[in-house]
């Protein structure tokens, strides 16, 4: 029985159909070393995409309900809303059909390259496999996968990078045609982020308020601190200018809104009574143990400053409705601050009374509990009641204010997303589907590599510290050319790898050691997915405290591409390789930034040691020089990037179009170089070792490339490849047609004799 890891249950649940080979090579001192090489399929090839599709369906379904909850809109906006909802319905229907087809699939746990054009398999990565070489006590892992790309949609018009750039430049004209406000991508992403934070924090604040009410007068500090922090985060999220502009836009889209712009400036009307004064003193939080009120610290997270929402100084006649809207929002916002201040003041006063026991507390006008409650109560003085009754009134008021703010902000931000969706054409719908498919392939590969690296480093305290303090480096090595269709594949892959930076991992404790209990679980939404990786209870308890508490783990993806085939030769001589150069430059900067943050956290001596004593800083300088040098097929870039990744405890991925020929050549060459540089492989036996790894005898006696996943993990009873002749030559002469028929007949007779 072959176990990919020391935990058999993980091997059977995540990795299966392992193929193992053992070699014996001669070293420089005429000794022999044993090398064990194994390749396995990964069940996450289908598990992760199916979970993602389900989340896509859930997210789009929720978006439809949210758009319907916007309330009554003017006829123009109501028609646009119906159009957007119909588009979401179309996406949901297609994703449901895809998920139904995927549920029917049985057999190998990977998608072969021959199926890359099938539409219902577009979310599945191509030939996702893990490969591990073990030499004595050293392990070298690499994940091989076909380039994440939308093969079923084709590359006639380019890949995601080009299509997204073109679509974004056209959205302004679309927004004008639909009478929408144009929001750039960073603004719509911010709207989604604020919407997610608000929807997440509002129920947490309500739950903490209920928990605080049930706590005793003594054991309330932790709950109160959490409530204060969550409330500050909540209000800080709503301080963005985008929320104000969204409130105004939604107000203008309501039925009955009339624009009364005049050519001459109207006389300045008096401010309405509800307008908050800009000279009002900022609210204070009673955060002193003795109950003294102190102003809230000046920080970005301060929700209680009077200047948190800037006030407009001049308004024309048509803007006064908007002023009233902002005033209403300001009043509710101020109520949140006052109620929170009252809760803190009350509990601190109770704590002071408990400490003083029967002693008479020193009273000042600001420290008397009745004065505290009266000064913060929106309804004036409160009749003396028991402390729990007073606290209940304040907490219910706080919960109500937070809920009202959340509802108003939620509707306004949803209106921003409605305008973005209305400005999208059918092409925008296809781009979203294409991006979803590419991201699904990339995330499946990432989850596979993360789990493989995590289990290999469970006993490495330095790696675990690096994991939760700096994040995990994942390096994608691409061998695609910058010619013809592979340009589009590389553009897809660039966006897919970049989107992985928004993913977070979290380690959880499995309920049991069964295979299904150890499968990763994906939660979240687009641009905010979290992958939960369960570990067996005994293993989980041995982790550092930060990991056991569920700290989100960052991912730092980098992509380096160097084309190596004959098409790249054509591109370098007659075409354009600027895409490859730009990708390598951009990702070198990301790699350099990760190294700086890593060295600020961990000493360089704590990182893995290799026989090659070259410092990582020197390797980075050499890599930077190679990236900036004009050189054809500079594979030194890939070799240096891979070496740096291993030195910094990263995860390596190797990709080409189908993860077969070029990928297997790259992986086997890297393995032999590691044996030569790290384990004293005799240089005279280097070529022999390389040939040995690239070919082998199977039980049928047939010579195959076992590094080809499609021939290493599946039965070999595949039909022989068909031979095609250039039909264009047959049009030159009828004599050639006769010759072609004779040669074909001879070939068929020889084949079946």
TrEMBL record:
Residues 275-293 have a biased composition (Polar residues). It comes from Danionella cerebrum. Keywords: Hydrolase, Lipid metabolism, Membrane, Transmembrane, Transmembrane helix. GO terms for cellular component: cytoplasm. This is Type II inositol 3,4-bisphosphate 4-phosphatase. The keyword tRNA-binding does not apply. It comes from the Eukaryota. The keyword Disulfide bond does not apply. The chain crosses the membrane at residues 727-750. Residues 259-309 are annotated as: Disordered. GO terms for molecular function: phosphatidylinositol-3,4-bisphosphate 4-phosphatase activity.
